[in-house]
Write a structure and sequence with these properties.
Chain lengths: ~290, ~325, ~525
């Protein structure tokens, strides 16, 4: 399992070679394309929609997809195209924020726990406890405490996922700490901070990147689930989960209201999963799943 | 293989003691979190049609005006005596309420686990044996879709198709197995499938890769070279060895299933633990959330210990690792 | 408009049915009904639960001394007579003979006393008994309530179905809160109950109908169980309820979304039954903070509001414009203050807004998403206020949080609070107007100091000995509340129920009543 010898070796690979390998990887490319489309749509939201996603138009409710409204309208006559496109932006925003918070705090906590043995016990017990909660329930409880809003959803999802990220970083750090070159650095009298920064963390980056790409997918999914359960971003905020939650009562007569954001959600998550698979195959071959 | 049973017991005991601080922290977090949630449990429980006077009366009846530290002390005192408190919403003990609901969730999870194992291992084996064929591609595409569909969306789609359009299956509600086994199957098939698909996707990917790993090993090649029929090789040698990583994953899957049940039970109105706890959080039913979460966590910890021990039985190396 | 006319027609037909001189007999006996209920039920303890979902089921099982008829007038149920002393200090009930509980035991005054004891200990609305000194059981068929002081409205309170004093066998006196065993005297007995899933009721063959009546009326009257069993199944998804009704998996459902109605009306196997006046859609100002403490500003808001659009969004088109806090079928109904209703005049609103000195302060509309009509109404109100130049925005929380926020003293976190008043307006003027007086006046006066004139009208509503004078006091209070813009009632919401066409005799009411309902073969 732990053929970690190839880790320092990979450092000499130039970044360009890795990139070339990535873009030759079929899964990575298809994931990149899917995710790229969603990301572009999200970024272009102000330019490709002309109707305020929250504008009510009671005379135009329940229009089917196609025609001037593109995706049709919902129970308040709001443009679904606008809502789904702006929803993409929110999903990206929430996913990216959770990823950044995880990258920062997950690394800090994981590295501290993995490197300093005395901290390990305390940090990992709290970590285990947080991980022992059913994830969605913990997120529901945290958003209930903080109140429903986009920022609080980001915080809640971070609280749920940081322990998981920290655990992964910790295990890489524990392995790396015992490596000979690190022990040599310790013997040479290098400071903890220096060892962590120069010898350990750079080598823990690869599994981190893979983990974060999957985390992005989980965050987007969980946000939609929270909104769907009515504890996510405040309505009428156009998140995919909110749109689906509001469309639930009309799924017989107007199934497009839940199907369109649902498919958008699926495309995003699938794109990220493919992206993650590709990254894992190229960056972290130990965990390879597909050839 | 089972010679070191004393060691296995020691492993189990060590894990059990390791779980105590975790459970202690879980109980503290759930206690604190619930008290921080704004919103009046009395208003939640009294419902829409209650008058302000009724809500005030209820608040008093529920003893919600006692000091926090007193409530915490009561809580721990109760736990030590095996009393997990009394649900504000249901008016009955947390333990009996949990015992009533847990079978629903466990039944659903077991059904989903069965589906997961059948679909996941099946797809994984087919994909590994026919590596790079169209069957492999199809199975892996299916697995990819499985891990990408949100389970509530899948549930909704199934409700639209099988309950609303075709009318084949009930869209919600629960029929206990003891009352009507066929009814139970009907009422839990859609929820179990919506739970299982994601895990089946995960399992298919893992089964495929560990099968491929094993198939490359020398002894399999030897077995094949000796002319043993392909099916025997697969079942006896390859699968048995591929089982080790799969068992670990199954442990993770059980806890994911319980977590996923939160959404699925709400969507399909199944009276399980997930629905009970969601309702409890949303209604500020403090004792139910505290006690229920502690019990569920304890259950999950027990499952994980079981998996650890099983893992040690299957793979003696870990005991010395 | 057509829909409204049809509804009226259905209601009057139902009335005609109940006026039939002949005593009801089941045209068909037997059969099973499954009812798709929207909200979860946690307990069937009718003494300690105020939720509608509990009442839906429990009021088919339990009965009370007195209850309400179809038009909400008090009627006798387990008592055959009630004598109020001239000084209002005692009420003497004579119990009906031959009534038995579901466990076979005969009803006596000892059971009534035990039920009152339990209610007085833990009943949620035990303040009903505040003016009661005690009760006696001079003989097994007589129950006497002694008052501390006369209370003209006591019978109105006693017969309330909000949290009714249901009569249970004396051995249940010490059942704990939420744990009352389901043994009543009603036409149905409980067979099985799984909280969160379903409750199954079966016909009680020992039931003795109340022969003082010919037909079922309101919660009481001459009741007979025709069907063998009724199962209340919790089906939270509206689409799933409709689908269940169409496939015949459910025989009756509540709360049908408007979008599904057209299809259901065309379906000859299904009867659609609108239940008018389910609740009064309402918003309440927070009078303790600026600018909603300014009457002119509140009037500007009043002038800006268009009830039709708000109700249309709230109910998806199923509503009736309604003035004030009572419904036209009630004796207390009054149109006092009608000039404040549905003004929908942006020009006048803007003029009043200028007069009020409003300087674009942010206005927060507090609502929740547990009840979509409230959320929808708030969404439209926000637009209407924005249209006249008010800087309004929504604050969406969950129901328990919104209640807690709205009840906070001198809160500066919100300006308008959205709610729906259901049970209380149906119970009458007295039950409704308690929302507008201390200690929890919904318009949140500063430091809880009521408007003295509103308070005076309230005291008259309670204490004047004559019913007509009390009704006049209600009209006065309603006019004051509306003119001073302490509340914005938008109209009456219609809740649509539907049954399979072979389910006969089902008339929507505040609970789904399954007595005098039969299944045609």
């Amino acid at each position: 399992m732990a053929d970690a010898e190839d880790i320092p070796e990979r450092r000499i690979h130039p970044a360009r070679a890795t990139l070339r390998r990535l873009f030759r990887h079929r899964l990575f490319v298809s994931g990149f394309v899917l995710f790229g489309i969603v990301a572009i749509v999200a970024a272009a939201a102000p330019f490709i929609t002309d109707v305020d996603p929250n504008r009510l138009s009671m005379r135009n409710k329940f229009l089917g997809p196609g025609g001037a409204w593109v995706f049709g309208t919902d129970s308040f006559g709001r443009s679904l195209w606008s809502r789904v496109v702006w929803g993409a932006q929110l999903s990206m925003l929430i996913g990216a924020s959770v990823v950044v918070l995880n990258a920062v705090f997950g690394t800090l906590i994981g590295a501290a726990a993995g490197y300093f043995r005395r901290l390990d016990n305390v940090l990992m017990r709290v970590n285990d406890a947080l991980m022992a909660f059913p994830a969605i329930l913990l997120a529901i409880a945290v958003t209930s405490v903080l109140g429903p809003s986009t920022i609080n959803v980001i915080l809640a999802l971070s609280i749920v996922y940081i322990p998981r990220t920290a655990r992964i970083v910790r295990s890489s750090v524990i392995v790396l700490r015992e490596m000979e070159y690190v022990q040599a650095a310790v013997a040479a009298g290098a400071g903890h901070w220096r060892i962590l920064r120069h010898h350990i963390l750079p080598n823990a980056v690869a599994p981190m990147i893979v983990q974060l790409s999957f985390l992005f997918a989980y965050a987007v999914l969980s946000e939609a689930t929270l909104s769907f359960l009515g504890v996510g971003a405040v309505p009428p905020t156009p998140t995919w989960g909110n749109i689906m939650s509001e469309g639930r009562d009309f799924m017989r007569e107007a199934p497009w209201i839940i199907t369109i954001p649902g498919v958008a959600l699926m495309i995003t998550v699938m794109g990220l999963n493919l992206l993650g698979d590709g990254l894992r195959d190229v960056l972290d071959p130990r965990l390879r799943i597909q050839q | 293989m089972f010679g070191c049973s004393a060691e296995l017991i020691r492993l189990a005991i060590r894990s059990l003691f390791g779980a105590i601080p975790v459970l202690l922290i879980v109980s503290l977090i759930s206690f604190g979190l619930m008290r921080l949630i704004p919103g009046d449990p009395a208003a939640a429980i009294a419902g829409l049609s209650a008058s302000p006077a009724q809500i005030a009366q209820l608040r008093h009846d529920l003893g919600l005006d006692e000091p926090l530290i007193f409530q915490l002390a009561q809580y721990y005192k109760g736990i030590l005596q095996g009393d997990f408190g009394r649900s504000l919403l249901l008016g009955k003990g947390v333990l009996p309420a949990t015992m009533e609901r847990l079978p629903v969730t466990i039944g659903l999870s077991m059904y989903a686990l069965l589906m997961t194992l059948m679909i996941g291992i099946g797809c994984g084996i087919i994909a590994a044996l026919r590596q790079n064929s169209w069957m492999d591609q199809a199975a892996m595409m299916f697995a990819m879709i499985g891990i990408s569909v949100p389970n509530f969306f899948l549930g909704l789609l199934m409700i639209i198709l099988f309950a609303v359009k075709l009318g084949w299956l009930p869209s919600g509600g629960y029929i206990p197995f003891s009352q009507d086994p066929w009814g139970w199957v009907q009422s839990t098939t859609m929820p179990a499938f919506s739970l299982a698909l994601l895990q089946a996707g995960l399992l298919a990917r893992i089964t495929r890769s560990s099968m491929l790993e094993v198939l490359r090993q020398d002894y399999i090649r030897t077995a094949r070279a000796k002319g043993l029929p392909g099916r025997v090789v697969i079942l006896k040698h390859a699968l048995a060895n591929a089982l080790i990583p799969i068992v670990t994953v199954v442990g993770i899957i059980v806890s994911l299933l319980l977590s996923g049940a939160v959404v699925t039970e709400a969507l399909f109105s199944l009276p399980g633990m997930g629905l009970l706890l969601t309702q409890a959080v949303l209604n500020r039913d403090y004792p139910m959330v505290q006690g229920g979460l502690l019990l569920v966590t304890a259950f999950l910890v027990a499952v994980n210990i079981l998996v650890d021990v099983l893992y040690a039985v299957l793979d003696p190396r870990v005991r010395y690792g | 408009m057509k829909r409204l006319a049809l509804t009226t027609c259905l209601v009057s037909l139902a009335m005609a049915g109940s006026l039939h001189a002949e005593r009801f007999t089941c045209p068909v006996r037997g059969g099973d009904i499954v009812f798709g209920q929207e909200a979860n039920v946690n307990s069937l303890d009718q003494m300690t639960s105020s939720t509608i979902s509990t009442r839906n089921i429990a009021m088919n099982i339990f009965e009370t001394l007195m209850t309400r008829d179809e038009n909400n007038n008090p009627i006798l149920e387990l008592a055959e007579s009630m004598n109020a002393a001239a000084d209002g200090m005692t009420y003497t009930f004579r119990l009906r003979s031959g009534v038995t509980f579901h466990n076979g035991k005969a009803l006596t005054s000892a059971d009534v006393a035990a039920s009152f004891n339990r209610y007085n200990r833990i009943g949620l609305q035990r303040s009903t008994l505040d003016n009661v000194a005690g009760w006696d059981t001079p003989d097994p068929m007589t129950f006497v309530i002694r008052m501390k002081r006369a209370q003209p409205t006591f019978i109105e309170a006693l017969s309330s179905f909000s949290v009714p004093i249901v009569i249970v066998p004396s051995e249940l006196e010490n059942d704990e809160r939420q744990q009352l065993r389901s043994i009543g005297t009603g036409p149905f007995r409980l067979l099985e109950f799984t909280p969160g899933s379903h409750a199954r009721l079966g016909r009680y063959d020992g039931y003795k109908p109340n022969t003082a009546f010919e037909q079922r009326t309101g919660f009481g009257g001459y009741r007979v169980a025709c069907v063998d069993t009724v199962t209340f199944r919790i089906v939270t998804e509206a689409s799933a309820r409709v689908a269940g009704l169409e496939t015949g998996a459910l025989q009756a459902v509540e709360d049908v979304p408007t979008r599904s109605l057209e299809g259901l009306r065309r379906n000859r196997a299904i009867t659609v039954l609108p239940l008018q006046n389910w609740w009064i859609q309402i918003a309440l100002p927070n009078v303790s903070v600026a600018p909603t403490n300014n009457l002119v500003f509140r009037r500007a808001v009043q002038a800006a509001l268009g009830a039709e659009d708000i109700m249309d969004a709230a109910t998806d088109g199923n509503f009736r414009l309604n003035i004030g806090f009572q419904y036209p079928n009630q004796a207390t109904y009054s149109e006092a203050g009608r000039e404040t209703y549905n003004i929908n005049n942006p020009t006048r609103a803007r003029a009043l807004l200028r007069e009020s000195g409003y300087r674009n302060e942010p206005i927060i509309i507090l609502t929740n998403r547990d009840y979509p009509p409230m959320y929808n109404a708030a969404l439209v109100m926000e637009q209407q206020l924005k249209a006249v130049g008010i800087n309004a925005s929504l604050r969406v929380v969950d129901w328990p949080t919104s209640i807690q926020m709205s009840q906070q003293l001198n809160s500066s976190e919100w300006h308008f609070f959205h709610s729906g008043w259901g049970t209380q307006p149906a119970l009458g003027a007295l039950a409704t107007m308690q929302f507008l007086v201390s200690p929890n006046a919904a318009y949140r006066p500063r430091d809880d100091r009521d408007d003295p004139e509103v308070m005076a009208a309230w005291n008259d509503m309670n204490n004047l000995p004559d019913q007509a004078a009390r009704n006049a006091a209600f009209a006065r209070m309603q006019a004051l509340v509306l003119e001073r813009a302490y509340a914005y009632p938008f109209g009456a919401l219609t809740k649509v129920q539907a049954v399979r066409a072979n389910v006969q005799g089902f008339v929507p009411f505040r609970i789904p009543r399954f007595s005098n309902v039969w299944v045609q073969r």
